[in-house]
Request: fold
Amino acid sequence: MFSNTDIAEYYDTTQNHYEKWWGLKKHHSLHYGIWDKTTRNFGEALENTNRQLMQAAAIQSTDKVLDAGCGVGGAALFVHRNSGANATGISLSDNQVQQANSTAEKLGVNDAVQFKVMDFTATSFPDESFDVIWACESVCHATEKADFINESYRLLRKGGRMVLFDFFLTPKGVEDKRGWIDKWKRTWAVPDFVTDEYFTEKTREAGFSEVENRDYTPNIRKSARRMLYGSMLGVSFAEGYALLHPDVSRFARDHYKCGYYQYRALRQNLWKYRLIKAVK
Reply:
C-alpha cells in the first residue's frame, strides 16, 4: 500500500522522466492524450483531454473549480484560460505546487489560479466551496475511492459537478495471468484500481445524481502506444543509470517499465479509460 508520502515521492522523483518523454515543460500535462479524427499531434491530444472534461462539466466563467491532483498546474490554467473561471489546484507534492504557482505568476493569472499542498480526500476547504471538482488520472492514487467521492460531495454546492478521467478495471472474469495490473500499480504508486461499476455505485451512495459513465478507451490507445515506445527506448538508459547510481530512488529505477505494463494490460482488455460525471 502506498502512503501520501510515497505518492509525492513518486511524482518528485520521476518528474524529469515526464519532462523528457511527455513534454511536461511545454504542455504542463502528465495525463494521456485523447485522439480523434481532428487531432494532429500529441500536444493537441493532451489539450483535448482537458477540453473533454471542461465540456462535460459545462464550466462557466462564474464557476469555482477544484483540480484534485493538479500535477504541475496545466489543467487549472487551461480551465481559466478557456472559460475565465477561477481554479484552485491541490497536490500532495510540494514541488509540483511550487512549480504550478510559479507558472501562474509568470502568466499573470495568480489572482485567479492558485495551488496548494493538500490531500484531496481530506481538504481544509469549507463545505460547498466549489461548483466543479475536476480530477484527471488522480483518483487512482486514493486508497479508498469513496473518500474522494464523499469529500467531493461535501465540497460541491447544490448542482455542482464532479468530473474525472481515470483508469478502471474491466469487470471480473478477465484473468490477469501475468500480473500486468499489479506490476503497473507498483511503478506508478497506485494503491489499487477499481471497476467503473464499483466507482459509480459509491458515487450514487454518496448522494450524487445524474451519474454518467463514458468509455474513451479507443481514444487513448495512441497515447498508450507512445508510452510503450518510451518504455522501450528508455530501457538501456534506465538500466545503465541504475548501475552507475545504485542509490537511485525506487520509483525512478523502474519507472520506464510502466509503459510496457500498462500497454500489455490494455491489450488484454484488463482496464478501460473512462470519463465519470456526477451532479450533486
